[in-house]
Amino acid sequence: MPQSKPTSKQQQFAELLDSKFRIPKTNITFGIDPIIGLVPGIGDWIGGLASLYFLFYAVILEAKTTVILRMLLNILIDIIIGAIPLIGEIFDVGWKANIKNARLLEDLQQHPEETENESKIVVWGTGILSVILIFSLLYVIALLMMQVVETIL
Fold it and tell me: Which end of the chain is more exposed for a tag (fewer CB within 10 A), N or C?
């Protein structure tokens, strides 16, 4: 009988948070993170605090800033979108930020340079997209304000 590969404490904790339970007759898994997220107002913040474990572990491993930022980005996306009632819980089931971060930790230990390079791309790409999104929103707001001013005058 083949033995399964032992999993690290980080992987076990990530599975508890993100994929411990399976919806019967589906491949959909979820953990306690989306369940905790159901607590109005603070649930997603509590889940986010639990997720910081992976970030602290990356610091202990002396991960580069880009890897830490990538992990933080995964956590922030989980918290922000997870805070939207109902949609956020569905998102949490699919996003699995803790599984992503546990894999990043594993990759960091096995292939540090490759993980750091991939993280640079993700962090820079996200930053550039964020700037484009912000300027696009500002442009749309300016156009709307111009129309309101023209309507008033």
Answer: N
How far is 140 from 122, CA to CA, in rounded Å? 27
Burial of 58 (0-12, 13-18, 19+ CB in 10 A): buried
Cβ distance 114 to 107 under 8 Å? yes
Tell me the pLDDT tens digit for each residue of 48-71: 999 999 999 999 989 999 999 999
- Cα 18 to its chain centre, rounded Å, is 11
User: 């910081």: which residue's tokens?
Assistant: 52
Q: What is the pTM of this model?
A: 0.81
Q: How far is Cα 8 from Cα 139, in angstroms, rounded to an integer?
A: 48
